[in-house]
Structure formats: structure tokens, C-alpha cells
Amino acid sequence: MTEPARLGGRYAVRSGWQLATLVDRRRESASAATLVLDVPGWPGHQPGQHVDLRLTAADGYTAERSYSLASVPEGSNRIEVTVQRVADGEVSPYLVGDFPVGSAVEVRGPVGGWFVWDPARDAGTPVLLLAGGSGLVPLMAMARARRRAGDRTPFRLICSVRTAEDQLYPDEIAALVARGDGFEARTIFTRAVSLTALRGPRRLTDSELAAWGWPPELAPRVYVCGPTGFVEAVSRMLVAQGHDPAHVRTERFGPGGG
């Protein structure tokens, strides 16, 4: 994709969209980056929601994608999205590697009201977060919101990623665990692990989910996000273990142009 129009240029904003400016980019892994966007008049959001981004090229061509919000709602005009580069994608490689700071992008949102964690509603109810790959992003927003609020709701996070190089936010997750306030986390690898790893590379098993998650008797709130295959497999295991389907909230992504 060619470089989109700049702020102040010939940029026609469509109804329901507003202009945002890329103010910073942070590398999260070899194939992912967090984009910091300034969105004037941002109305705020809940952890777990997402936004739609639309890029417009100089020739008028547009491309639109949805990305989960990674940032904590904090009453400012700045939001963050973490984008995972899709090898054959049209948009994600540009956003991760080439989208210039200072450029404009259209934003629509926040979007979604089902896949959110509300500490006021769910105070004290254990939370289980299950992430496949970049499905960690909205779950991390929940963990960050918990930390910012000083909330001590018991959280357990299980991340499934291909290799150690694919991990998102590993240092931050380790710091959350080190706080000792009821946040626990485990990461499993499905493709390759180090020689010192206690577990070989494989997908999450039913016995591991039962051991590392919350027992269904506690009626935890469960959030599952990741590729369609991961979400469907984990959801089936949870229901088979006795979790109430009404307490299992899912969000999935699949091939869509990247």
C-alpha cells in the first residue's frame, strides 16, 4: 500500500469515522508492534473492546481492518493497538514496519460490548484469560486495567504461542506476576522451546487447562481470544470440564487479508 494522505491534505472523513495521528510505535516482537494513536475527543473504552482502522492511499484506495485495544482506559485521547504482521497481508506489514509517525489514519470505535471485563460488575469473581498468539492483546488490556485500578480480583492467564520469539509483553507479564496480588500466568509453546523447557512444544491439553485454570465450581469469568481453531478447541474443553457456557466469552480472528 502506498503512503496514506497526511493530516491537512485531501482527506475526506466518512460518517462514523474520525481522524487519528500515529504518535509513536513500539516493537513488541520480531513481527508485532504497538501503535500509539492520538484520537481527538476519544470517548473512552472498556478493556476488551476493539477499533476499526481505515487507511487511504494517495490514489483513493482504502483498506479497513479491526484491531483490539491494548491500552487501559485512562481518560485521555491516546489509545494503543498491537498489530501482528501477517506474512501475506496487505495492511499489517505496512502498519508494523512502514507507517510513518505523524501520519493520519481513520478510526471508528470503540466497538464491542460483550467481550469486556467490568470490575464494577464482576468484582471478586475469578477471571481466566486464554490467549492464542496475538489474541493476548485484549486480555492484556484487562490485566492492565486491573493493575491500574489496584484491583485484587484473582486472574489466571494462559498464553499459547508458537515460539519464545513470538511472545508479546513477556517482561510486563512477569512484572504483573511478581506483584503478588493474585495475578498468575503461564505460557506454552506449540512449535519450538528451549532445551531447558520443562514442557515440549505442543498445544494446550485438557489436563493442563484443568490444572492451570479455575475449577468450574468457582464460576469464573472466562475470556478466550485467538485464531478460530484455538478458540473452538479451548471452548469445547471448558464446557466439557463443566464451565457454564454463559460465562465463557470468546473472540476469534482468521484469514482476512492481514
Write the SSE topology:
Layout (H helix, E strand, L loop, with lengths): L17 E12 L2 E7 L11 E7 L5 E7 L9 E7 L7 H6 L6 E8 L7 H4 L4 E6 L3 H14 L5 E7 L8 H9 L4 E7 L16 H7 L8 E7 H13 L7 E6 L5
Parallel strand pairs: 7-8, 7-10, 8-9, 10-11
Antiparallel strand pairs: 1-2, 1-6, 2-5, 3-4, 3-6
Task: Note the main attributes of this structure.
Elongation Factor Tu (Ef-tu), domain 3; 11 strands; 5-stranded parallel β-sheet; Rossmann fold; 2 domains; alpha/beta; 6 helices; 6-stranded antiparallel β-sheet; 258 residues
In words, what does this structure look like?
By secondary structure, the chain is α/β, with parallel strands linked by helices. The protein has 2 domains: 18-111, Translation factors (Elongation Factor Tu (Ef-tu), domain 3); 119-253, Nucleotide-binding domain of ferredoxin-NADP reductase (FNR) module (Rossmann fold). It contains 6 helices and 11 strands. It has helices at 92-97, 119-122, 136-149, 170-178, 206-212, 228-240; strands at 18-29, 32-38, 50-56, 62-68, 78-84, 104-111, 127-132, 155-161, 183-189, 221-227, 248-253. The strands form 2 sheets. It has a 6-stranded antiparallel β-sheet. A 5-stranded parallel β-sheet has the order 9-8-7-10-11, with helices on both faces. The longest helix has 14 residues, at 136-149. The chain is globular, with a radius of gyration of 19 Å. Residues 1-11 have low confidence and may be disordered. Pfam families: FAD_binding_6 (PF00970), NAD_binding_1 (PF00175). It comes from Promicromonospora citrea. This is Oxidoreductase. Residues 15-117 form the FAD-binding FR-type domain.
